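Q: What does the assembled structure look like for these inputs?
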Amino acid sequence: MLSYLHLELLQVLRNRQYLFFTLAVPVGFYLLWSSVFTGDRPDPVTGLAAPVDIMVSMASYGALGATLMTTGVRLAIERRSGWLRQLRVTPLRPGTVIVVKTLAAMSLGLPAVVLVGLASVVWQGVRLDLAQWIAITALLWLGTLPFAALGTMIGSLAGPDAAQPITVGAYFALAIGGGMWMPLSVLPQFVQDVAGWLPSTRFAELGRAVAAGHAPSATAGLVLTAWTLGLGALAVAAYRRASVTA
Amino acid sequence: MEAISVEGVAKSYGNVRAVESLSLRVPAGQVVAVLGPNGAGKSTTVGMMLGLIEPDAGRVEVFGKTPAEAGAAGFVGAMLQNGELAPNLTVREVVGFVRGLYPDPMPLDEVLELADLTDLAKRRTGRLSGGQAQRVRFAMAIAGAPKVLVLDEPTAALDVESRRTFWAGMRAYAAHGRTILFATHHLEEADENADRVVVVARGRIVADGTPAEIKQRAGGRAVRFTLGGQPAAGLERLPAVTTVEVDGDVATLHTADPDTVVAALYGTGLTVRDLEITTPALEDAFLSLTAANR
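A:
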C-alpha cells in the first residue's frame, strides 16, 4: 500500500502539467493579486486583510486543483490505457487502489498550500502563529476529501477526452463559486446565495477561519461532511462499476 | 493439485457467445498453449481465469481459490494484451513495484535479466518501443515468481528476433516447474513452447493433446522424394504410411511418424532422391482442425 502511494506520488510529481497548474499558477496569482489588492481594509465577508485572504484563497485553489486533476483526469487516463487493468492482475486490490489514489490526491494539494503560504510570508510579510499554519495545512489537507470523491466519480464515469474538460469545468466553477478567484463580496448576489452550499466555499472557510484566529463554523463542517458522504457514495458506486468492466 | 480448474464456464456479450461451456484442468507444472484464431474466445477465457471477467455460468478455480483470491494471494502473474504502462516511471520502478506486491518474489536484477531489460532499467516506460514495452509486461508478470503465469497473446506485435528472445525467457521461467498458460494464434509457438495444446474455436475446445498429437490430428507430416521413373507401387504398404500421392515424378507419403517411414523407405531398395520431410502448411492444417467442428 505504501509502495503504491509512493508510485502514485512519483508519477504526479514528474508531471510538468501538475507542477504548472497546481503550483506555479496559485503562487503566481498570489504574487499578482496580493500586489494589486493592497490596503488594510479587511474584506467585509471574511474579515481578513487582503494578503491573508488571498493567501487562503490561492492555497485552497491550488489544493482543490491538485486533488481534482490527479483523481479525475488521471483515473480516466489509467482506465483507458489499461494500466489499472494490469494492476488488477497483481495482488493489489481495487479497494486499495482507490484508497491510495484518494490519499495521494489529498496529499498532492499540500505543496500548493505550503508554497502559497511561504510566498505570503516572504512577499507580503504575512505573520500567523505556528499553530495557525499547522491547522490551515491540516484542514486544507483533510478538507480536500469531497473533491477527491468528485474527481474519482468523474474519472470512473468519463473517458479521458471528456474527463479533462469536465474536471476543469468543475474546478473553475467551484473555485469561482467558492470565492477563491475573487472575494465573494464582489460577486453577484445569486453566486453569494449558492456559495454557502458549495463545498469549495466551506473548504476555503476552514483556512479563513483559522487565519482569522477562530475555529471554523459547525456549518462548514456539516456542509463538507455532507458533500463527502454524498459524493463518496457516488464515487464508490461509479468506481465499482468501472473496475468491473475495466 | 490442479493449478487451474475451469468448469463449464460460459460468457456472452449481448447476442455473441464468446465462450460456451468450456472446461479445462491444468495440473501444476504444465505449460499449456490455448490455440485458436482471433475471436475464438481465448482472451475471454483468460480474462475469466484472472478474475477480470465474471463468467455467466460455471466456475474457475486457481489452486482451489477463486481467481480474485488467488490473485490477492500472489499466486498469479499475468501479461495482458495492449496495456499501456505508467509513462513517467522507469522500467526498474514499474517492475520493482509489481515485484514488491508479491509475498515471495524473484530478485529484481534476475527479473530484468530474464526479460532482457537490464540495459533499459533506467528508461521511462513512455519512451520504449512496442517490443520493449512488451518485455516490461513480461517482467511484471514474472517479477513476483507466481506459481501460475497467464499470458494473453504475449508475442502479438513482436518481430521475429523479439519473439525468439521472449520465448527463451519464458522457457527459462518455466524450467522452475511453474504452471504456464498462454494464448496464441500461432501453431508454431504452441508447438515449440508448450507441453500441451488446447485448440479453441468459437468458444469451445475442439482439440486437446500434446503438440505432436495436435499436429497429427491437424494432418500429420509428409515424406516426399523424386521417383526418377521407379514404380510407386507398394509404397502405401510401408509402415506408418497413411496415404500416398504421386504427382508426376514426385511421391508424397503422408504419415504421423516420418522417422519410421524414412527408415522403411531406404529398406525398399529404391533410389531415394531429393528427400524432404515437411509439416504441410501448419496454418492450413490448423484452420481445418478448427473448422471441422463447425
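The longest helix of chain A spans residues 50-81.
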